[in-house]
């Protein structure tokens, strides 16, 4: 299993890029699974539903709702697990796990940077973590970096980013 991260400032387009990359990997016949890091509690269940009652009123550690085409697990857990541990725990059999967020992780990454959403990218060549950046996808014509810089106006950037992600992804042992 390979694991790779997409990072960027709020509203830069991380989810849009992750979805596009996921679809491209699926088109290539790969099993793709994703992890989304959120800084706020997930609101995936509504008060009054049976699963909400199981989870909140019953104080169950885990609740799984199984329907004909979808399964969802609700789990009480402190947000202390890194994306690699989460991938090992939940995503056996994946060819690649795409991670959105987890900026503090040690995963190789692509940054989405839009000049309208932040004055500068997260990437800083002076930081020790700069070695984790595989590429930056941007709308800025002036941005340069020690990693590859692709622009939204370039052709074939999605295919190139998927190739770079696959090549540079961290390989997880079982």
Please explain how this structure is put together.
The protein has 174 residues and is of the alpha/beta class. The protein has one domain: 3-Layer(aba) Sandwich (Rossmann fold). Helices cover 24% and strands 25% of the residues. It has 4 helices and 9 strands; from the N terminus they run βαβαββαββββαβ. The chain has helices spanning 14-27, 50-57, 83-90, 157-168, and strands spanning 2-8, 32-36, 62-66, 71-75, 96-100, 109-113, 133-138, 148-151, 170-171. The strands form 2 sheets. Strands 1, 2, 5, 6, 7, 8 and 9 form a 7-stranded mixed beta sheet that branches. A two-stranded antiparallel ribbon has the order 3-4. It is globular. The termini are close together. 22% of the residues are buried.
Largest sheet: 7 strands, mixed
CATH architecture: 3-Layer(aba) Sandwich
Number of domains: 1
Name the poorly predicted regions. none
CATH fold description:
Rossmann fold
The protein's oligomeric status is single chain
Count of DSSP E strands? 9
What shape does the CA trace take? globular
Helix count, DSSP H or I runs of 4 or more residues: 4
Helical fraction:
10-25%
């Amino acid at each position: 299993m390979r694991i790779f991260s997409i990072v960027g400032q709020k509203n830069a387009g991380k989810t849009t890029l992750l979805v596009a990359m996921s679809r491209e990997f699926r088109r290539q016949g790969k099993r793709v699974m994703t992890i989304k890091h959120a800084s706020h509690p997930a609101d995936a269940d509504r008060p009054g539903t049976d699963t909400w009652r199981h989870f909140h009123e019953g104080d169950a550690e885990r609740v799984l709702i199984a329907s004909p085409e979808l399964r969802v697990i609700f789990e009480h857990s402190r947000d202390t697990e890194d994306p690699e541990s989460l991938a090992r725990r939940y995503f056996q059999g994946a060819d690649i796990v795409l991670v959105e967020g987890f900026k503090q992780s040690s995963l190789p990454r692509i940054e989405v940077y839009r000049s309208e959403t932040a004055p500068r990218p997260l990437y800083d060549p002076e930081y020790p973590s700069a070695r984790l950046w595989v590429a930056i996808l941007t709308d800025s014509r002036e941005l340069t970096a020690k990693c590859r810089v692709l622009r939204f106006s370039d052709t074939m950037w999605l295919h190139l980013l998927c190739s770079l992600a696959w090549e540079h992804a961290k390989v997880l042992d079982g």
